[in-house]
């Protein structure tokens, strides 16, 4: 890696001011979009009400026409048929409007959730990079990897998808053990090195939840160091040794990047490729202590990873054409929370690794289950253990 000069204090201050102004404009734009979406939902509700009234009036009119025909007389059904056709068309239009309304409401709620969960990146997360990122320009990203830059709305949806997927995996794996063998797929539970480990493999999909409590950790410092190391191939290989390529395709904002990553595999598929966003955001979540029946609220940060859709590369390589390159889907989250127990006054740090991956086959999913567990233990050894040692030394 090429080393860059450390920015001066004036440069850092200028960068912070630019970031603050950038985030102010982002928040203004999001509020404006939220207001526009709310107005659209109200318009759809008005249209829905009008269609309901029109349909009711038309149905009543058709009934009156039918009853006004004299008995025994050959009835002319032309008008009734026309009314029936019109009612059918209005019904179809009404169904379309209802579907559109439901979709707008869903998107509207996602925006509200987005605003409420403080997912917007903030300048306080900024880390100073004393290295040069291995970046790909936009043309090469499109030609080689089929990637086109994410818009702000694309990125927002990616964040929300990650949050929703992570919640689903956690709820599914942390439920009672009597559900462990549903659908003939076993959920494996164990404890090792202080970690509570839950993993489940179903077909090509592997899901996991790893949790552990620590004392004396600086949660932001730990995730910022992880964030920086995960941007450098040499450092990232210390966690996931099979990684062959790690390049930046886009910087979405100061706390979110899009990467392409190749991971080697000792099989007919020699490379698993992923294009994903990685982001560092604030988090508030419920934590269930092992020695308490009450949930506690933890506040901290999340380092998230979420695959993004790509198009077919314009010029696939020989490896891609021969089937030696396959795409792996990633949904990952490393969450670090400060938790205070109000009953005892105890303060601790709760670490959660949660995720789901799809590596195309059950064989590769089982291998990924072992690799992910090893990666988590390497991460603890390289990132957490030194910080705990510093805390221990400072106390003596």
Automatic annotation (TrEMBL):
The keyword Coiled coil applies. SUPFAM superfamilies: Leucine zipper domain. InterPro entries: bZIP_sf. Keywords: Coiled coil. GO terms for molecular function: DNA-binding transcription factor activity. The keyword Coiled coil applies. Residues 27-54 form a coiled coil. This is BZIP domain-containing protein. It comes from Phytophthora ramorum (Sudden oak death agent). The lineage of its organism: Eukaryota, Sar, Stramenopiles, Oomycota, Peronosporomycetes.
